[in-house]
Design brief:
The chain has a domain of about 80 residues. It has 15 helices and 13 strands. The chain has a nine-stranded mixed β-sheet, with helices on both faces. The protein is globular and about 75 Å long.
Length: about 450
């Protein structure tokens, strides 16, 4: 890849995707371009504005022009209702490509080397997340349940993320929506959505290069078999209550010394811990044929000083296990928790307002807005990898909220022609030495 990855190159990926969105308008009112609607919404999410109204008020103040036009390539910004109307008919598949284009740019630019040090070159974590719920508002893409005679409508998504031990950021990949499927009588679910994702993305990764991480829900024989059929690996949380056959076999093997045990002492964050492993290879996941054998590993971590239990978990995997692999395997498998902490938690509670109803629509609007929100999250993550000025500003300001509050405040009162100009201004002001004589 020639040259360093930058805001302009990342923005170009999003602009290219917005430019090819289908326009299904049949009337004469075509004042606004589809790309302007998508880029306006993307800019709102990128700046972590809490609503369309707040974004519109902050973006159209001084000098009769908008920073969105300058920074995000918006030629003419539609109003919030117009933006929603324009984006509602757009199929979510039209916004899938930018996720992979950005991933490929990061990978080819060697920005993801730190994410290739796990048990396999890539660790991808699956988890589902609710981002909309209502007893009244709904669309054709909602999943409906009835509780006490009252319908409940919800939107849920499986959003895989790239994770790595010791890395504070997760890299969101193209999501898969949990939504009613054509020709299917059964309600869609998280596992079926993850299966669709696996089948569709099978050729993006080299055989044997991915270990998929997930909670106990995914430790389901057909899903494990699908992962293996795609020539990849899995490490799924494995609970006793969900897998009685497996745990019965482990208990029987333990009585005759067939379960291996190993203990080591590790220093973590300056404190000594005791890691005690129990593991066995090739145990049946269930009693019913066809038999599918998995390898099982359990770890219990205690404080060396007090004996207090700090962590306990167990996984089923297709990776062969021995004493030389246990610590790396557990560190990789435990990276799944980053999906909740660094993924869902950031998106829902640290500025991206994932569960806020920015607009629901009658067709695909809720899904399209979610995709644009995730793309904004992905772009900030990418900049944290590749943009040194961005890194310096974020490090200086510390809290994520402070960074975005400052961004919105600056864009409310000043015009910046480019993103580098804005970041350079922030960096310069933050690095200025205080004046001893006072103001």
């Amino acid at each position: 890849m020639a040259g360093r990855l930058s805001f302009e190159r990342l923005r170009a990926i999003v602009i290219a995707a917005a430019a090819q969105l289908p326009d299904q308008r049949t009337g004469r009112n075509t004042q606004y371009e589809m790309a302007d609607a998508a880029l306006s919404a993307f800019a709102m999410f990128y700046l972590q504005a809490p609503s369309f109204r707040t974004y519109a008020q902050d973006g159209q103040r001084a000098h009769g022009r908008t920073n969105a036009a300058q920074l995000f390539g918006v030629a003419q910004a539609p109003s919030a209702p117009q933006t929603r109307n324009l984006l509602d008919p757009v199929p979510p598949s039209q916004l899938a490509a930018p996720f992979w284009h950005i991933f490929d740019q990061l990978r080819l630019g060697a920005y993801l080397r730190a994410y290739q040090g796990g048990f396999t070159p890539w660790l991808i974590s699956f988890d589902g997340s609710h981002y909309f719920h209502s007893q009244r508002i709904h669309c054709a893409q909602c999943n409906e349940t009835v509780l006490n005679g009252q319908p409940h409508y919800a939107h849920t998504v499986v959003a895989p993320v790239l994770v790595a031990p010791g890395q504070p950021e997760v890299l969101v990949l193209e999501p898969e929506f949990i939504t009613p499927q054509d020709g299917q009588a059964k309600q869609d679910c998280e596992l079926r959505a993850a299966e669709r994702w696996l089948k569709r993305q099978a050729t993006r990764f080299a055989p044997g290069s991915v270990t998929y991480l997930a909670d106990d829900l995914y430790c389901h024989q057909p899903f494990c078999e699908l992962v293996v059929a795609q020539q990849q690996h899995f490490a799924f949380t494995c609970k006793p209550e969900s897998h009685p056959t497996l745990y019965t076999e482990v208990a029987l093997l333990a009585k005759i010394g067939g379960v291996h045990e190993y203990t080591e002492r590790c220093r973590v964050a300056g404190r000594l811990q005791v890691w005690h492993y129990r593991y066995v290879n090739q145990v049946p996941r269930r009693a019913e044929p066809p038999v599918f054998a998995v390898n099982w590993c359990e770890v219990t971590i205690t404080s060396a000083a007090t004996g207090e239990q700090l962590y306990h978990n167990a996984w089923a995997t297709d990776h062969g296990l021995d004493e030389t692999k246990l610590r790396r395997f557990v560190q990789s498998a435990r990276s799944h928790w980053k999906h909740e902490n660094e993924g869902h938690n950031v998106l829902k509670h640290r500025g991206y307002h994932l569960t806020h109803n920015f607009g629901h629509g009658a067709h695909y609007l809720a899904q399209v807005l979610l995709l644009l929100n995730l793309l904004a999250f992905l772009m900030h993550t990418a900049l944290a990898f590749c943009d040194e000025t961005y890194q310096a500003v974020r490090a200086n300001l510390g809290a994520r909220r402070t960074f975005f509050d400052d961004l919105r405040a600056l864009l409310r009162y000043w015009d910046f022609d480019t993103w580098p100009a804005l970041l350079t201004f922030m960096k310069t002001q933050l690095e200025r030495a205080p004046n001893p004589a006072g103001p």
